[in-house]
Design brief:
This protein has three helices and four strands. Helix 1 (15-32) packs antiparallel against helix 3 (73-85). It has one domain (2-94): Alpha-Beta Plaits, CATH 3.30.70. By secondary structure, the chain is α+β, with helices and mostly antiparallel strands. The chain has a four-stranded antiparallel sheet. The longest helix is centred in the N-terminal third of the chain and has 18 residues, at 15-32. The radius of gyration is 14 Å and the shape is globular.
């Protein structure tokens, strides 16, 4: 099992847009095969950092999941919404595996 951590740098004046984006992924990610842990928006401290976290079986499963997400009508609209509103300034993905509990 891999955990994907997505680190977003967002426009601090568009936190509401990011929250909307996160809510849509809250429905689409599980439907398309990701085990969503959650999306996290700024609250205290940095006003520009946000995160998305989900589990996926392996990198091959990730590729299939990404294809389903890109084909999903709600997913396509969410990608278009982000491009149109430009609230995401930077997005970085890291895949980690659990080393210990």
């Amino acid at each position: 099992m891999l955990t994907c951590f997505i680190r977003y740098q967002i426009d601090p004046f568009k936190k509401a847009e990011f929250a909307r984006y996160a809510r849509v992924w809250g429905e689409a990610i599980p439907r398309c095969g990701g085990d969503l842990i959650g999306y996290f928006a700024p609250h205290e401290g940095s006003a520009t950092l946000a995160y998305g976290v989900y589990n996926i079986e392996n990198l091959a499963a990730y590729e299939a999941y990404r294809a389903r997400l890109a084909a999903d009508p709600q997913g396509r609209e969410n990608y278009a919404f982000a491009a149109r509103e430009r609230f995401i300034l930077r997005e970085d993905r890291t895949f980690l595996m659990l080393a210990s509990r």
